[in-house]
Amino acid sequence: MNCISELLVLDTLPAAVAIVAGSVVLYFVFLFKRSLPAIPFELRPPAESIPGWRGKEILDTPSIFVKSKPDIIQCFDPATGRSLGQVKATTVDELNDKIKRARIAQKTWAKTTFEQRRQVLRTLNEFVLSHQREICQVACRDSGKTLVDATLGEVLTTSAKLQWTIKNGEAALSDDPRDPGFMMMYKRAKVVYQPRGLVAALVSWNYPFHNTIGPIISALFSGNAIVVKASEHVAWSMPYWEQMVKRALNVCGHDPDLVHFVTGFSDIGSAVTSSPLIDHITFIGSPEVGKLVMKSASANLTPVTLELGGKDCAVVFADADMAQCVPVLMRSVIQNASQNCIGIERILVQATVYDKFVDEMTRRIRAVRVGSILDDEPNTVDCGAMVLANCFDRLEALIEDAVSKGARCLVGGHRHLHPLHPNGQYFEPTLLVDVTPDMDITRNETFGPIMVVMKFADEKDALDKVHSSPYGLGSSVFSGDRTRGRRVALALRTGMVNVNDFGVNYICQSLPFGGVGISGFGRFAGPEGLRALCVEKSFTEDRFPFIKTPIPPIVDYPIQDSEKGYQFTQQI
User: Fold this and answer.
1) Which one of 141, 174, 468, 486 is CB 3.0 to 4.6 Å from 437, fit for a cystine?
2) How confident is the model at residue 244 (pLDDT cuts 50, 70, 90)?
3) Is the Cβ–Cβ distance between 332 and 316 less than 8 Å?
């Protein structure tokens, strides 16, 4: 019996050891892979964002400039002209101090794990989702947009970017093994993505929340610190967004100095782009300013990503599903008063359905109501205000030029004096038809609620008219023929295209965002956007410790016989 017991013990011992060892391994795997949870925090939004707020005076002539005070920014609600107070512009000395602190903080941040970075993004995303209304109201007050437009353009896009980065960011930035080739088969080769250090983003005013938070998400996850130069036109909301990000970092145990906001006029923007301590620049704005940014950055050979707007087209074929196409195109023009870099600014409609399309759009655009979503009665506002009032002369001149060359302005065409908000900044929703490529409006970005409709005969005619513009950011093709839809989409000289839709490529955060031509170069979003903020380092090492690269004596310096050495290398 003792012999049998001993045999049983001997038989089960290996299994027992395997079970224990496996349990230990699984424990450490779980410990290593466990997710760090989002940490809740609260942040009170500014009182001015509350609907119906009447706290300060209405400015007679709303402007961001204050006479005799060049270092002060006057903030106001573009929907009403009501003052939101004044903000002191960042000085160059203050900028340099922020840069110094950010660079110090980044040295520690670069050593964090992807999971630690994910926790910060989870914390930020949780705050965004649980405080959607407050965020939208702040964005509406500062930029005059509607709550629907703020939800789609500020919250939905930001949360989509956060969620994609949390889920896919590590895979995009993990070491990328490469084939070393036959000659180097004894080596391991890979690309290592290392943070650049301190990056900068100079962003536009049309989506004050998303445009500032988007670059921060990518910068932090890729191990960088960031300085965000926010537009002076939306300086009022910037402290709220900055506090939000700094609180998320702080509650997760990280240095809030990783993120700094600066605001001011062109002088502070130039100081950012010319700083030798900035390792990468992302700029969102106009081609004219983009060229200045590029010139400034070239002094230090600082790499830049430029998103410079667009004159996006939608090509509508006769077999398109009009019940789906028309509402989508309405949103592409009216959303955010068309202050969208990927807003549809040219709609090309096939001749056989052109008149019917124009009739339907005439009815719809005439019915669009403009106003202040935070101050007017419920269900009375479809389209918000314009952030820049100084664009009205230019928009009216573009419309007048088109009409003088044969276009018809069927709806709108002028700035709008709102009966409840005479100091607000509104432009009439406009329908301009029979537009041709020789008209100035087809080659200049309007950034206003103007639907431009052009007629085309066939595919070649459509492509010729689309490509008459120097811009090449986004585009859309509407057709019931999938083969034709793909063919035309791939023929468009643009950085992005959607078949039977508008703008959805940006909700697909796995896709890079950017254009061609004077719409800029470089990409943000997707793996390409994350990697743009990294140094792509080529790395090799010995695959086996006992096999190393030898230098044959025949080619070892000093070379004894050059001809024999040459013949030897020829055989390699």
Assistant:
1) 468
2) very high
3) no
* 225-234 per-position pLDDT tens digit: 999 999 999 9
Q: Which residue has the tokens 């005076």?
A: 57
**Can you tell me the distance from the alpha carbon of 514 to that of 306, in angstroms, rounded to the nearest whole number?**
8
Measuring CA to CA, how many Å separate 127 from each of 132, 152, 234? Answer: 8, 17, 22
Structure tokens of 186?
Answer: 């004894």
pLDDT at 160 over 60: yes
Which residue's entry shows tokens 């989409």?
A: 489
Output the six-digit token pair for 131: 């405080």
Question: How many Å apart are CA 422 and CA 434, to the nearest integer?
Answer: 32
What is the arithmetic mean of pLDDT over 444-461? 97
- Among candidate residues 444, 519, 474, 496, the one with its CA nearest the CA of residue 290: 519
**Residue 292 token pair:** 């200045």
Structure tokens at 561: 């016989």
Closest by CA to 71, choosing from 50, 59, 88, is 88
Alpha-carbon distances, residue 431 vs 212, 366, 403, 449, 469 (angstroms): 32, 9, 12, 9, 20
Please state whether the peptide bond connecting residue 14 to the residue before it is cis, i.e. omega within 30 degrees of 0: no
How far apart are alpha carbons 203 and 205 in whole angstroms?
A: 7
Lowest-confidence segment of 17-26, 188-197, 397-406, 458-467 by average pLDDT = 17-26
**Do residues 528 and 539 lie in contact, with contact meaning Cβ atoms separated by under 8 Å?**
no
Q: How confident is the model at residue 12 (pLDDT cuts 50, 70, 90)?
A: low
Q: Phi, psi at residue 28, to the nearest 5°? A: -70, -35
CA-wise closest residue to 383 among 356, 410, 364: 364
Residue type, 235: A
Predicted confidence (pLDDT) at residue 11 exceeds the cutoff of 80: no
pLDDT tens profile 363-390: 999 999 999 999 999 999 999 999 998 9
Residue 17 has pLDDT above 80, yes or no: no
**What share of the chain has pLDDT > 90, as a percent?**
93
Side-chain-side CA neighbours of residue 244 (13 Å): 29
Question: Per-residue pLDDT averaged across 263-279, rounded?
Answer: 97
* Cβ–Cβ under 8 Å, residues 234 and 208: yes
Would strands 516-517 and 471-472 be described as parallel, antiparallel, or unpaired?
Answer: antiparallel
Which of these, 67, 58, 60, 65, lies nearest to 89 by C-alpha position? 65
Q: Render 357-420 in DSSP notation, one character per residue.
A: HHHHHHHHHHT--B--TTTSPTT--SB---S-GGGHHHHHHHHHHHHHTT-EEEE--SEE--SS
* Residues that are catalytic: 307, 341
Residue 499 and residue 501: Cα distance in Å, rounded? 6
The first and second tokens of residue 155, run together, are 């919250």
